[in-house]
User: Fold this.
Amino acid sequence: MFIDRRYLIIFSLIVFFSGIYILFSTQFGVVNTYSPVPYWDQWDGYLQFYTRLLDGDYSAWWYQHNEHRIIFSRLLFYIDLRFFGGESKFLLVANSLLQLVNVGLMMYIVKDMYVHNKMLFFVIFGLVLSFAFSWLQQNNLTWGFQSQFIAVYTFSLLSLIMLSKYHQSHKKTSLVFTAGLLGAMSAYSMSNGLIALPLMILMAVMMKLSAKHVLTLLAITILVWFAYFYNYTQPPGHASVTDSILNHPFEVLKFTMLYLGAPIYYMTDNVLLAHATGVIFLIACVICLIRFFVYDRKNYTKLVLLVFLLLIGGTALGTATGRINFGYEMAFSSRYITPTLLAWSSLFILLILTFGVNEKTLLGYFLFALFMSFGLIPEQEDAYADYSEMKFNRRMAILSLRTGANEEQYTSQIFPFKDWLIDIAKDASEKKISIFDSESNSFKENIFEYGNIQSCMGNNEDVFTLENGYLKLKGWVYNGSSNVVDLILLANLDGEVIGEGIAGKPRPDVKAVHGESAINSGWYGYTKTKEEQIFAYALYRDGYICKVNALPFATYSHNY
Assistant:
């Protein structure tokens, strides 16, 4: 061997443990960024879906979400809201589990390699793990709504693998039918899953399945497509597919190449390199396809990977035709990185199966895996960032909705349509679901009912008048520990609670004086009652309550 085996062992261990590191650092990031507040599409696609079910509208399962019919994700949403309080924790676990299933399916494809070349097996495992959990796709791993972005590929790949076992099965009809159902689940995870079944028919023809079984897949495809497009409406704002292809073919092609080369853009901050990588990726796929037809048409493992790559390539092209009007930067969106990295895993395995393992190719595989591992690791740094401000702003949006202040500064950070958001929040609040069912929302009507009230450090800093007449109050509170403040209660001189607030806003200035545990001591609150004096009280999660030791808010205010 022209390279010392010991170096290959070191290389394989580096790649393997890089994958392990990326897996666990991303899980840390999922926890680090966690907020129970529904975000963006979760308001209409998650909360409003559930409130419609509670109102007896069971057609909510079938409603379009943009161009998608996300039945599988809605099943997860229902479980989360019905059994887990609608806090999104179950959904985040589901997202990571789906990615682990994708990793398992990839490793199942190369399971025989463990016997023949353990080092290469662990290199593949490490790289597939790195691709599956890279922080580049954090949008799909840290947002509870995004299971469909992962599940569509889970069901597609599983259906293709199952179909590839046709000639080895004694129960061919049940296998084909099950594979077809998995293909249907792909379609009802996300719209790009609609092409999974036609690709399965193509694969079935190439594998020379019996006419009965090809027709079975065709029948399932027709039923799935007919049901999908029955009463279908084209979502507004998207570019026309035919117009994009006929009038902007080069722009579509460029977008597609950038989509496929997006990871390199994040690693190098170079659009040209990302574009070139997309072109190289496409060329490599074409070479593998040609070699498959020339040398190895009966290798159904390769066929699975080729068809899966075709599905992801079709997804990239479909995304380009529908999103090109938003600009090329859309190709680098975090949520689109998941299929790209799955495609890179598939191509890496396909290249190994196509060109085999010898001294030169083995070194090439190891060096590519090392390059990608080292390139992805720096991107994990953002998983450790401080997201306190983001979490506080989302909680402020909920407080704003719950109190009726409806301050757009915060509501716009969780949903872009204010009036729609207010309607959804009102319905969810009346039904006491998700974030609106939190016990921390309740408090006594008079502050003196809490009994022994201590004093704590803090300051009542300012009060502003919003356009709708609400007062917004600002301050900080600290009791000398890192205990979490549940609520800020605003009371008048008689102790009547006239408003509420939340703490948790980062205050580096307070931290500089009182230490690290005081970092998130800032608070904001709302009241619509103007009093001569307003006092602030901090109610802690353990039931402890204290009065902010500062002058009360006066009646003066500033427009805000």
